[in-house]
Amino acid sequence: MYCPECGKDMRRSDRDPRYMVCDNCRKKFFRPIEDFYEDGDDFEDPPVIREKRNACIIISLILTIGYLAYCVYYWRYSGDLSFSSQLGFNMAHALVMPHIVAVVIAFVFNWIGVILPNRWFILVGAIIYVIAIVLMPIYFMFVILQMVLSFVGFGLMVSSRNKQQRNFAK
User: Fold this and answer.
1) 18 touches 30 (CB < 8 A)
2) Are 106 and 126 in contact (CB under 8 A)?
3) Percent of the chain whose pLDDT exceeds 70
């Protein structure tokens, strides 16, 4: 490829192969992706990095499954109660239900984030864990660890933009 300024041969930049550098006039030009594979070029394909599943998110999912199993057992098999106790039980059940629904929704978002490796689903799941804590602050101890692990997992996941830059630089 020749320099559009001076007409001399250009070389590929050592730091970023997307750019061509002219040693004569010291100019740097962006080389479009389509031009990467011209006849005679010996470009190597960038290595494909397979992203590992985030252990923090997997642990959070396992803890959530355990908590939801506990909720099903506790609210389903609480035993025979008298009429007044049954009335109180139903009121407590109605108060806790939004918390449990929020935990289920957070679980679904984290699960989708693990399957698709998309960090934004993980972030939404972590925020919904926070909402679950706000809905029933007494049960914070059952959800706080999942919330923290989800935020840590979100921070550890590489964004798709950074992943593309890392793959391209190698």
Assistant:
1) yes
2) yes
3) 78
